[in-house]
Design brief:
The protein is α+β, with helices and mostly antiparallel strands and 592 residues long. 56% of the residues lie in helices and 12% in strands.
């Protein structure tokens, strides 16, 4: 069975040495001492590695079962979920007044990676609840908050998001689920939703569905969509559970991966639903959930890549195959371990440089979220909005690729279920699809975040990176090398922005044809930016201390690898963007 070791040393290094969280004036960061974060990460790591990870493979094999509308989760999930709830892990960053612990998002994010890497299918039950609770917290009435949030934050009740229907996925304007006013207090919801993660299960006493529907006679398209709270069991005035609502799971999907999570077809037959926010403004409320979910899905890409890498590394050190061309390393054995071979090293370095760079990016992004919302810093909020499709799209694309590379190191054994590597690949695959397929993320990035909203935020980001380069370039050969590479790629980004500015207004297809490459170009820049920060801190710390030299040297060498072997991809993406849409649209549909 694959193992998992929480990356506590790496997270601590990023939090306290690279991001220097104790030096920021963000409310709540004063409490985040090294001993405090280490205690949280250590306990989360124990739960992840000792409780959740052992259920990952068995949950994958067993899956969920549906009988008479009731879903049973894999053996051990109920007990593990109860342990998760009792430890207070489900409400780390939620408001204290509703039962949360009020910690910053950066703590929630660091812990979230551990749980997702330990068991992605399991972690989705409480992660989706967090998103649903956030939507109610932001857009619900005071009564709705008091009714639902305390139980959702503790996961006594869980939550879902219901968007997709058989005839519509991304194009939510095609939604047919209808909402008929029954009284001033509630509506009757009728329709079918598909692909609803955790739509039905046996882990909680109630499930609070957030459902997009169209009020009768509402405007067509997305302008006529509203959001409703539709509980599995209605809630009485005293907070106790009442009768069963008219919502039922009719099917659980037979999927490629995440078998331990019930992906449901949900039927609403005149179910009681309560309007969230104003009529016809459901998309605004739903995007609160979707943006949070997209950041969480990006974290899943990192998490699956990391656990796959950990096991591939262990296998490469133990598996004897062939001899080192530079001379035998294990003369007492019949062959040398896989890790002596350069191509295996290349693959492992690809994986290591991605996972550790991506971890820095998501923690930095979580710090941006904290700064933006805890200090009402609008430019920072705009920056994290710009980066959200990059984190979701780039990290899941790359994360999936890294699980494949990890699987490849096992050779034929990677294709056999017994070794567990295929599960990481299968589970990682969905992250590229749900919460908006990655092509949609790229369109959102270029079509909305750049073209519709103007180029101010991306230009500000480029200026920020350029100022960082100028401020920290001290003339040493070491820093000069990093900053030369980062500056070159940042120039590629600026040139890509210039191309979009110049040509997209006259030809919108030019921008859309290059959107996927732009998302990856920006993603590589973000990781290069992170690795430059990491390398400079690691060198300074190595030169001034006598401890952790192996760890710090590994950081520096991995940073150099990313800058020299991975970051040059920005030039390729720029050339693709500049080629425009001509070759993409050249064929008549009949000629494909």
């Amino acid at each position: 069975m694959p193992s998992y070791h929480p990356p506590i040393q790496d997270v601590q290094f990023l939090l306290h040495d690279v991001l220097k969280i104790s030096e920021h004036d963000i409310p709540g960061y004063d409490d985040l001492s090294q001993s405090f974060t280490e205690a949280i990460l250590t306990e989360a790591g124990k739960l992840g590695s000792e409780v959740l990870n052992p259920l990952n493979a068995s949950g994958d094999r067993e899956g969920c079962t549906l009988l008479d509308g009731h879903v049973t989760t894999p053996v051990g999930f109920k007990e593990a979920f109860a342990q998760l709830r009792l430890g207070g892990w489900t409400g780390l960053d939620m408001p204290v007044e509703y039962g949360g612990q009020g910690l910053p998002c950066i703590v929630h994010t660091a812990v979230g990676e551990i749980f997702s890497a330990s068991n992605q299918a399991f972690s989705m039950y409480h992660a989706l609840t967090h998103g649903a609770a956030s939507a109610i917290l932001t857009h619900g009435t005071q009564k709705q908050k008091e009714t639902y949030l305390p139980q959702m934050i503790t996961c006594e009740w869980t939550g879902t998001m219901n968007l997709t229907e058989p005839q519509c996925g991304t194009d939510l304007g095609l939604i047919r689920t209808k909402a008929e006013p029954e009284s001033d207090d509630y509506y009757r919801i009728t329709g079918q939703k598909i692909f609803i993660s955790a739509g039905e299960h046996d882990l909680a006493d109630n499930i609070i569905h957030l459902v997009l529907a169209r009020i009768v006679d509402a405007p067509k398209g997305i302008k006529g969509i509203s959001l409703f709270i539709v509980p599995k069991f209605l809630v009485n005035e005293d907070g106790s559970l009442g009768r069963r609502n008219s919502v039922q799971c009719s099917k659980i999907e037979d999927k490629m991966g995440i078998h331990g999570n019930a992906t449901c077809v949900m039927n609403y037959d005149g179910a009681v639903g309560y309007l969230v926010g104003k009529p016809n403004q459901g998309m605004r409320a739903m995007f609160t959930m979707m943006n949070e979910a997209r950041l969480g899905v990006g974290l899943q890409g990192l998490a699956q890549a990391d656990v796959a890498y950990q096991n591939a590394l262990e296998y490469a050190k133990e598996r004897l195959q062939g001899r080192d061309v530079m001379g035998t390393k294990s003369s007492e054995d019949s062959a040398d371990p896989l890790i002596v071979h350069p191509d295996i090293r290349r693959s492992l370095m690809d994986q290591k440089s991605f996972t550790e760079g991506a971890r820095a990016l998501v923690l930095w992004s979580a710090m941006l979220i904290d700064r933006g919302h805890r200090k009402d810093d609008q430019p920072t909020i705009q920056l994290i909005s710009l980066l959200t499709p990059v984190i979701k799209g780039f990290l899941t694309d790359q994360g999936y690729e890294m699980t494949i590379q990890a699987q490849q190191i096992y050779g034929g054994h990677g294709y056999i279920e017994e070794y567990g590597m295929s599960q990481f690949t299968r589970d990682a695959r969905i992250a590229m699809i749900y919460e908006g397929a990655n092509g949609i993320q790229a369109l959102d990035l270029v079509g909305r975040k750049l073209l519709e909203e103007g180029f101010e935020t991306i230009e500000r980001f480029i200026r920020s990176v350029s100022k960082y380069i100028i401020r920290h370039r001290n003339g040493s050969e070491f820093t000069q090398h990093f900053f030369d590479v980062l500056q070159s790629s940042t120039t590629h980004l600026q040139l890509a922005v210039n191309e979009l500015k110049e040509k997209s207004q006259a030809n919108p297809n030019f921008a859309l044809a290059g959107s996927y490459d732009f998302m990856h170009l920006l993603g590589h820049i973000c990781l290069g930016y992170m690795w430059t920060k990491i390398a400079l801190v690691a060198k300074e710390k190595r030169d001034s201390t006598q401890i952790d030299h192996r760890f710090l040297n590994a950081k520096i060498n991995t940073a150099l690898y990313y800058m020299e072997r991975r970051l040059p991809a920005t030039e390729m993406h720029l050339r693709r963007i500049k080629s425009g849409d001509k070759r993409i649209t050249a064929l008549d549909p009949r000629d494909f």
